[in-house]
Amino acid sequence: MKQTSWLHFLIKSILLGIFVAGILLLLLPELRNSTSLSLGLFQRQGFSTAPLSFSSAINKAAPAVVNIYSTSYDSRPLLYRRQPVERTSLGSGVLMTSNGHILTCYHVIKGSERITVVLQDGRGLEAMLVGQDPHTDLAVLKVNDQNLPVIPQSSEYETQVGDLVLAIGNPYNLGQTITQGIISATGRGGLSNYVSNANYADFIQMDAVLNEGNSGGALVDSNGTLVGINNANFKTLDRNHRVKDVAGIFFAVPYALAKRVMDDIIAHGRVIRGYLGISGTEFLGESGILVNGVDPLGPAARAGIKVGDTLITINGKPIESTFKTLDQVAETPPGSTLDFELLRGESRQRLNVTVTISELTSS
């Protein structure tokens, strides 16, 4: 009897051990890949973690962001003669190629007679204006040097609302400064929209702070890849019709648009855009463009398009939106033709019109 009781006890102990081992393997998966149990599993883990830092992104991008000093001369009346006055404007720029092509804002260098670029290693270089595009407020400069640091770029980058971004520039000539924010809204990134003080439909909207001197600097993501060229903060009028800045709303030209503008300027000395010569509105929930304005000297007028017409297809494809259609026109080489199908009058007469696209001028 004692031997049987002892045997039962042994079997129960073995079964209990197997059961406990199974429970431990379920609760502590680390034990499955280890031959020994680490005491660290039972020790309280510390709550300290490595601090979140974007220093790696800044180290990649910051060397390619330069300070720009543009000098112009005004004549100021002084008794019976005019005294020339030197004016220096402050801005930033981004090195896009290793042989010295720099993207910046047109308003940074507009009207300047001398442009000096200061690299982050302290070198100062004279810059030449290659060309400008007032429609996007961009300009391309060139310095004579080689093996310069280039900002990281990606043609596959897609801007999304909520992305974290870092703005790099030289505000108030304090030296290179970083501000951080998120993308609040995005534009289409096309060529058709005209940029003005009150029109930022193509631009990236974000809340990374920009101050005087930041214009033309780099907007990068958390990996240091170029997202856009910093431009300006939003302005509005107060009750007394004075211009005032609006806190928390800042803009940058999207990288894809800025790169296309730069490539055109380098290749042709200017940006070549197709021009149709209409303005229009869309129908809610429907495709097509209702033409509400026609340039009397433009290509559309010469082809017979009138106010009140509804454009429904372009080159045989349904028109999705005004913006996409005008972008397609902008990217069409001047001299090329586009075929439109339109509806006219109360009878909704269908007509086919071929328009020879002209070049959009800066005037």
What does this structure look like?
Keywords: Hydrolase, Membrane, Protease, Serine protease, Transmembrane, Transmembrane helix. This is Trypsin-like peptidase domain-containing protein. The chain crosses the membrane at residues 6-28. Belongs to the peptidase S1C family. With 363 residues, this protein is α+β, with helices and mostly antiparallel strands. The protein has 3 domains: 55-143, Thrombin, subunit H; 164-268, Trypsin-like serine proteases (Thrombin, subunit H); 274-359, PDZ domain (Pdz3 Domain). It contains 6 helices and 20 strands. It has a 6-stranded antiparallel beta barrel. A 6-stranded antiparallel barrel has the order 7-8-9-12-11-10. Mean pLDDT is 83; it is low at 188-201.
